[in-house]
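Re: folding output
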Amino acid sequence: MKKLLLMLASIGLVLGILSACGGKETGKTNGDNAGGKDKSEEPVTIKLHTHGTEDGYAWKKTIEAFEKEHENIKVDVVQLSEKQDSSEALQKIDLAAASGEQMDVIMFSNPAAYAQRVALDMLEPLDELIERDGYEMKEEYKFSTKVGDHYYGLPGKSVSWYVLLNKDHLDAAGLEVPKSWTWEEFMDYAKKLTTNDRFGTYFHGPQNGAWINYMSLKLYSKETDASFIKVDGTSNIDDPMYKESLALRVKMEKEDKSAVPYATMISQQMNYRDIFFTQGTSMIVTGNWMTAEIGGSSRFPIDFNIAVAPMPQNEPNSDEAFQVVEGDVLGISANSKHKEAAYTFIRWFSTEGQIAQGLNIPAWKTVSDDQLVGLIDTILENAASPEKVDKESLVHSIQIAHSAVVGEPLPYDMEINQALSVEFEKLILDKQDLDTTVENSKKVVQEIIDKNK
């Protein structure tokens, strides 16, 4: 039965070969800061390349709201993945850049992918525009998009992490919805929820440098230096939480047999949405972008109850669930002929546009707690089956999330992620032991750092 359920869950994630593109200076077409009417004389159409689907981003409603305020700017949404697959979208972005296709606004699903394209001269610096509009990035947004000495993008949604729970499965196993818990408790839940018909949990990665948080769960749960690179730019692979993160994955898959095998996930090109909504697993660690989907949709109607728990922690902590907070980043193509119009859009989208969209948690710090709860209400009201969601646990899990202290995005973050993914795969496929994996990880990360000095 497990094999049958696993066969139902399939979507591939593939990272494309990157292709550089050079920047060109173009004349200004129009512009205004966030919130004001556009003052341009001639209408323009800008293209937005994005991994986001209509279900996940409500583009029709969002673009209508923008164009109502900025009548001379039309936005053509180029949807790059029918399944909101960010890796598939990155491959198409790279191909579009290499072929000289018109791109004005480019959306990235995470700062690492964004920083890597900055290094390829794909994006336009925004410093002068930010200074012109008179706001401070650190005061305005929840995470940094600074690469080197410059800003090349503005945050869209803010991604913190939580655990989606099949509440019917929890009830049947006599388990409560956790309000705070440790990784050891998470592992115990997964064992108790595993049956002949399903796995206790599913980890959607790492995959060729993507979804690397799934190989660093304990490291990402630290209060500071919660990444492969410390804030000071040195390697963080010596941190005991890196080794413990790898050990957690091995134990759950090999010993407890409570997690979907990595080899099955890769070979069957599985996807977390499919396996959770078809009840092939009882729990998934995932990002809060799923808030827009957990109440059910035409694609994934649900007939079971869903609860949400905060990210597990390394030590008991009922007040804060530390994690690496990231999110979408929107940049302007260096080759765009409509840079001012593109900036007008990304500034609007990163602020009041997030409220107009009404589907995601904004990275814009101006959003108050009351607005956040109201936004969650709106998201659930638009769901197919909002009564299936434990709203109290959802709100709690989002509000208790706290950003860990990490360094700014580096152009070689993706290179490190890919190298560590290779080492993880050797471990999980029994090609090398844990200690060898850690030692090899230290070596490859230091080599990448030295090479990029």
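--- second protein (sequence, then structure) ---
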Amino acid sequence: MLVKVQLKNEIKRLLIKILNHMKKFLFIPLFIICLTTTAQINFVKFNSLNELFKEAKKQQKYIFIDGYTNWCGWCKELDKVVFSNKVFADTIHKYFIPIKLEMEKDSLGVIIARKYAVIGFPQAIILDNEGRLIKILNGYSPLERYFMRMQEALADCKQNKFIAGYSTNFSQNYPEFYIKQFPMPGIKKEKRDSTTINLYLTKQKNWANETVWNVIRANYYLLNSTNQNLLRKKLPELAILFGKAETEELYISAASKQINQLQKVADETEFITTIDSLTNSLDEKWWYMFQYKKDYYEEHKDYKKLALTIDEYLNNKKEKSNVSIINETAWNLYLHCNDTGVLTKAITWMHDFVLLNDPLYMYIDTYAALLYKTGKLNEAKAQAILAIKVGKADNENTEETEKLLDKIKLQLQSK
């Protein structure tokens, strides 16, 4: 059994799995070996975008823009964990001109923020040397994941895959309220007015342009039901310009308030029927339905139906399963569920799926906790010890697992 092997084999198999996953990308070898080697991306400063594009053409490189703010904690974490890695930094230097822009205090940062409706941080903007948008990398990811995302973006660069909906014009005729959302340094940002935004959108005959798209991206949570429905109807034409996954995610984000309210509805049939209609036109409908049903059953503490939903998810051959979702659900069951049958199902998920794919500390810890709760004390002890070893090797805080191990030992002694 994989979960019972020694620490050395656990880590070895994990690294082999990551390596095999990365073979379809462009740079593989030294990344795994040099994970802990530190360096630093040497970000370059430019006085204007014209100067930046001129230099990129001269060097025949792409452009990597790290969009951050001084108050953003995840931006600092990205600097520390990802941008300080030697192999990642070497990759950036080889193929890109890297620049770092404070999106609220640098004039160039504000221009970029307006251009791509940057409202969350960190956000990496990847352009070719003509100024065409190749990819936006939203948020923080751990080193391995961020590196893979970067490889995907570089593959798009080399294949000349740019996002057609964005022009190379960085001085769009934006509506005044949108400009005030991204004021130049020294000017106070104004509060967004949902009435103004919704009125603007209902007056637009053509939604298939970057200005309307950016207004929606920057204000999706303020859209009324009329504009949410309009957005859903226009998904096909917007998908051609901005990507199918991006448009569907934007629509789901816009409908999130309504969906969150539905989560509270006691009538399960009403909930499922409404969610079904909201997601009916989406390519990723099955995925969204799974997510919302899972959240609904967790909200209403219907753990038997939650377990059936997870079983359906794991049995769906079309769906690329996500181990973190399974682990999160299993951990919540450990905390809140006392149904032995459901907990036994969760143990099976962790053993047969999660640990065979990602034998990480937090997953072994969940497995040990579930074994403990179901009275499988000797197995729980073995897995808790393994979790602590793996956690310490990865510099994780294993204090809670050590407490769990103490409880397991006490129960074993009492028996």
